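>> received
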Amino acid sequence: MVLRSIHTDEDGIISTICVGMFDFFKQRILENEAFLEKARSNMLRMEMVLGRELVDQVNVTNVQNMLMRFLVKNRIKQDISTRKQVEVYRKLIESIPPTRTLIEQRENENVELVRKIEERSEAGGGVIAIREQMSARTVMSVDGVEGELAPVEHGVEVRSDGQSNLIVKPNVATEEE
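>> returned
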């Protein structure tokens, strides 16, 4: 990101500038981890109700057979008085394959996001280039590393060192940027 200059705000509010995908990727990973925790907890509950063996064997093509096996094993009759109970077990068994698929997708997405974070940090990450001056204190976040910078009278480049520090160097940006 290239900025010509940053000036003070009339109300004294500090400007915040963010570049890089690190924060987005990190937030997405946290969302996926929260989802995975809930989904795994739900799978454990299904195992408690249906039995681990049945849960392990259920797939998209054998849901009906697994329901019948469960009903026979637990001697649940298929009459009018137990119809609601049978329907609940059917829905529970039907939810196993999509839950497994979602868990796998979110795990794979997290692996890909971690790979992207590592790839971007190795490539040098984002840069904020200020060509002329920064006349006000400004909060900057580069690839998830945030810091408050003091005013400067000349151009600078702001980068993250990949750890937890912002590096401020004299600006070497060109007009093509």
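>> Strands lie at 2-6, 15-19, 127-134, 138-142, 145-149, 156-160, 166-170.
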